[in-house]
Amino acid sequence: MFGGYDSAPPNSPHLRKSGSRTVVYDSDELVNSSEENFWSTVDSDEMKGSAPLSSAAIMPSPLLLWRFKVLLFFIWGYICCKISWDSVMRMSADLRDLFLYEAFLYYNPLLLVTLAVWLWGSNLWVFSLSPVNYAKIFDLDQNHLTHNEIWKCATWMTIIVPTSMTTYLYLYSHGEVSLAAFQPVLLYAGVAMILIFPFDIFYLSSRYFLLRTLWRILFPFQAITFADFFLADILTSMSKVFSDLERSVCRMVHRQVATIAWFEADSICGSHSVAIPVVLVLPYLFRLFQCLRQYKDTKEKTSLLNALKYSTAVPVIFLSALKYHVFPEKWIGIYRPLWLLSSVVNSLYSFYWDLTRDWDLSSFTRIFKFNKPHILSYLVYGRKWVFIWVITSNLILRCTWTYKLSAHLRHNYITLFTITALEILRRFQWVYFRVENEWSKMTNKPQNASISMEEIPIEEQKLLNSNDHSV
Predict the structure, then answer these.
(1) Counting CB atoms within 10 angstroms of each CB, which of 75, 101, 135, 177 has the fewest?
(2) Could you read off the pLDDT of 213-261 as tens digits, one per residue?
(3) What is the pTM of this model?
(4) 166: which residues sit within 8 A by CB, 6+ positions away?
């Protein structure tokens, strides 16, 4: 039973290599040969023991490799900042702001998307430590990306996008305008190719899931899943990203990259373009149609109230766009008060919906209760400051996000980038409590809490129904 010869004779074919002949052993020879093989193995292990030890000693530890990568990352960041600063300083002061505005417009969307990827990885990291089963909520397969893989993608995006921007600044400031104009075009084309690449590399299943969800958002002709309206909600916080993306692609198509033609007000891709408010309002319209589809499927009046919330963003966007198409006196006297009123209604309605519908205030003490002891759980679990911070920051950033849609901020790219980045931070803070609230609803359903007797195996039914158990 424990390796004796009775269970496996020496001449068993399972103990011989294929093609070897059968050997007849004597019992004494078998014992002697076993002892010789044992001591020869020990001697050989002692003689060779130093080799694996030395090879393991020269291998660097994972911590050392991680520190080396971080050092290279900071060196790369310093080089990019140095080259970019020197390139900007080469230009005259009157052209510097225009030059930075154009350069920032091309790379602003991808920089903000990179920030969103980093924050999504942080969300998944917290969910992996907590009891929340996010894979079941989003109906993900077994090959879904973990937070480490998401952060790996974000790291490469953090390296590639600023490198392309630094190259653009350097080439433009040194007179290589045609080569500079090629940099954002190459970057956008590369991102599009990676997303639609049909081969099984670069996380094909995850890319397919993202593209399929985007398709379902664009054409909500089917039942709405949690992943559908969850991603659509995130897109509403990134509407400014899509607006800048549209303007950048428009200039690339019309060959206005690294030129001054697009500064003209009547230009196709200028600041007076009608496409700007249209692209800004599209994510809200997609979410509105999803709510109407949910009402059609469920007949719940809550879906209509949610659709009304997204409809309040439409007058905010189009009243703001009227600044470029009416006289200043008319804008100040009529349209600006209407814009302010619609902004207040949209901000307060959205804030009320976050607290009463999307979130459950009691979940604030459940989301950060990790399965294992962790310093983050100690800092935020059950703390009152979490309530105060989340509610206050959500209200303030809701108001600033509506204010960002003001037309007079369109050329203040630093302010717009800051407000958009804060809105993305608010949205991914919202993610923690929205996903946890959905998980709480799934686990507290009556059909999940009780198990019918038909689902219990026959043997277990006998044990449950039996009264005379003998131990």
Answers:
(1) 75
(2) 999 999 888 888 999 989 999 999 998 899 889 888 888 888 878 776 5
(3) 0.77
(4) 80, 83, 84, 87
